[in-house]
Structure formats: C-alpha cells, structure tokens
Amino acid sequence: MTKSSRQTVDVIVIGGGPAGTTVSTLLQRMGHRCLILEKSSFPRYHIGESLIPDTFHTLERLGLLPAMRESAFPVKRSVRFVSPSGTASEPFFFSETIDGPRASTWQVERSEFDRLCLDHAAQAGVEVRQETRVKKVLFEDDRAVGVLAEGAQGEVRIDARVVVDASGGATKIGTQLGLRGPVPGLKKASIWSYYRGARCSQGADEGETLLLTLPQRGWFWFIPLPDDVTSVGIVADPEYLFAESRDLSRAFLREVERCAPLADRLRSAQRVGAIRGLRELAYLNHQTCGDGWVMVGDARAFLDPIYSSGLFLALSSAEMAADCIHDALAAGDVSASRLGAFEPRLTAGVDTVRRLIHAFYDPEFSFPEFLRRYPEQRPALIDCLVGDVYKDMSVFIDCLEQMTSPP
Ligand SMILES: Cc1cc2nc3c(=O)[nH]c(=O)nc-3n(C[C@H](O)[C@H](O)[C@H](O)COP(=O)(O)OP(=O)(O)OC[C@H]3O[C@@H](n4cnc5c(N)ncnc54)[C@H](O)[C@@H]3O)c2cc1C
Q: How many CB atoms lie within 10 A of CB 105?
C-alpha cells in the first residue's frame, strides 16, 4: 500500500466502549477528526452495570443526560451493605453529601448504554467502524503513528497523529508492549448471572445496589436492571471459589445457596442469563502513555468492582485525556508528557479508590468500626462511594491508615 492511498485521521480510538466513545466525542467536537475501530457489532453484551453519581459531570458534558432520563434504566440513589447474617446497614443515600439531580444515577443494561454512547459519538461526527479489529499498533522511533486493522475490507493501515487505547480488558497496547501485569495484593475472581423476579427493595431505595458480604471477605452484588431483571455476581478469592471445582456454574450456584440473605431474595426468581466469569480481575499497566499514544478506561487498569468505580474511571479518564490530547494536537506536540499531563490527577484519585478496596478486603479492617472511630469521616467515605475522589483526600487516607496498612 502506498503512503498516499492510506487513510489518515487525527485520532484513532481502539474500542467503542464508554471510554472510547467519550474521548472521541469530545475530541471530535473540539475539531479533531476521530475514528473509532470496534471489533464487535453493537449492541453487544458487557458486564459492569452500576454507575456512581460523579459520572454526572461527564454525561452532562457529553450531552447524554436527556437520553439517560428518558431511558428505562432504574434510578440509583443509594448503596447498602448486608452482613453474612442478613443484617442490612442503613442505606448510604448519595443525597447525604450531594444536592439536587447529581445525587442520583443509574443502573444500566450495558448493551443499551454502550449503544447509546456509540450512536451519540457517530452523531457528533466520529467515524465509527464496527466489526473492525485492531491487530497491531504501529510505531516509528517509539512513537505511535497508526494501526493495522482488519474488517470487512480486509486488512488496512490507518495513520493518525494520536492513537488512544480504549480496548478495555483486551489492553491492546499494554499487551503488545508487554506493559500489563497483576496488581500486587489484589487477586480476585468473579462469576455472575441474571435473574427475573428477584425481591428488590421498594420506595426511595428501590434502585439501590446491595453488597452482600461473605464471611471469607468475598461479596455478592445485587443490581436491579430494567424488565424486572437483577444482575447478581460474586467476587472472591479464586482459591476459595474454585477449591471444589473449576466449573464456573457449580461454584456460582453453590455460593448463591450459601449466601442465605441472597438466596432468600432469589427464592421466587428465575435465572434468565448464562453464568459468566473471569478468573482474574485486577491488572494494571506499568506505563500508560507514550509518544503518540495514551490509554483510557479499562485499557489502562482495572482494579475491582466493589465500589462500582469502573465506568466512572472510564468516563473521567477519557474526559481528562480528551482535554490533554486537544492541547497536544493544538500545540503540535504529541509527546508522552503532553498527552499524559492528566496522569497525576487521575492516579491520585485511583490511589484513593485502591486504598479503599484494599481496606475492604483486609480481614482486620471493618467499615462500621472505622466510622465509630472517625465519625467525622462519613462524608469523605460517601465522597469515595460517589466518585468525588479527584481532590485532597489526605485526612481521610491518614485515618484509614490508622486501621489498615496501605496497599
Ligand atoms: C465482574 C465485573 C463487574 C463490574 N461491575 C461494574 C459496576 O457495577 N460498575 C462499574 O462502573 N463498572 C463495573 N465494572 C467495570 C466496567 O465494566 C468497566 O470499567 C468498563 O466497561 C470500562 O469501559 P471501557 O470503555 O474502558 O472498556 P469496555 O467497555 O470493555 O470497551 C472496550 C471495547 O473495546 C473493544 N475492543 C477490544 N479489543 C479491540 C481491538 N483489538 N480492536 C477493536 N476493538 C477492540 C471491545 O469490543 C469493547 O467494545 C465491572 C467489571 C467486571 C469485570
């Protein structure tokens, strides 16, 4: 292929999930020609259904709030913890620390939410090519210059000034460059499925997420979705989950029965989805941007679903990256330092979330005990649960460190 016959755009985005659509919609609106390459055909299935309130800012900037309000997605106003004996905590209502419409968010069916985001990107002028898989990111002198992709027209080379890796758990650049590795001290597996007719909460907290804790520091999520469907999943140590059998279904159904408060809520429900799972959840990349490239969302790292922070981090990292990529393109300088100028702020926020995840799985730590000892930290804890983590959290972290060592 001659250089003149190759397509050239400003920004190639690998993956049309929430991170990819966010970064490309914002950049396209700022005047840059963006191309999303997505390997699957939407709508496609995806796990990760519970939003947290601070996604509001990015959804507002994208202009997606009207569509969200018109959708059938249940409104989520709170989170509640249920102990192994079945004792439920008081709901943590987000309105305790946030006023107005920002105090609620949504539980989303991902096939529908992701399709909405992808259509919205296309409406903003982003070129979207589905069923097109990026096989390789191309580098010249260590600078990303484009990709080799495979789709309906066969294999094509596309050049770009910036390549954004938004490929989720596939971590395209991380895998290609050998940057991906485990997260020290965090090794969990997850298995999940869907039920129709489960007994959900009623009233103001009907759309709440329930977190049912297990004696071995594992937990179940219980997330109401449209059409009376509930998403139910377990996160626990793989050694515990698969001790008796490697079979996902057997492990999942056994654990549902063992968790009495959950089994009770599912008593008259019918399972309506396949049983799916991941044997290793957490990973991170040792480098997250370089000359001509940057990672956003799960392509960058994934820690744990416990605080439902995945979509929030996907949207907020993509939004921060969009602003830096815009600056870099405008300045004609796509160096790593310019493209990744958002990294310190993002990393500090992620670090707070990581400490909280670590605390949750620390057998010596207990949140009720933490709140008894530091009642003045309840608003800061709720700030973490809503995603308000891009600010100085040092006092909260100091208190946390009095009761659990840092990761
Ligand atoms: C068990 C579990 C439970 C979770 N629960 C929650 C939750 O309750 N709340 C929450 O906020 N988050 C949750 N998450 C996390 C959430 O799912 C992710 O954070 C979120 O999907 C990240 O969005 P993304 O756009 O970065 O990646 P994705 O949504 O994964 O999108 C990446 C896209 O890239 C495409 N792609 C991949 N490789 C290529 C390629 N080579 N070429 C072209 N396209 C490619 C994929 O097809 C995909 O569409 C959970 C995750 C897990 C594992």
A: 27
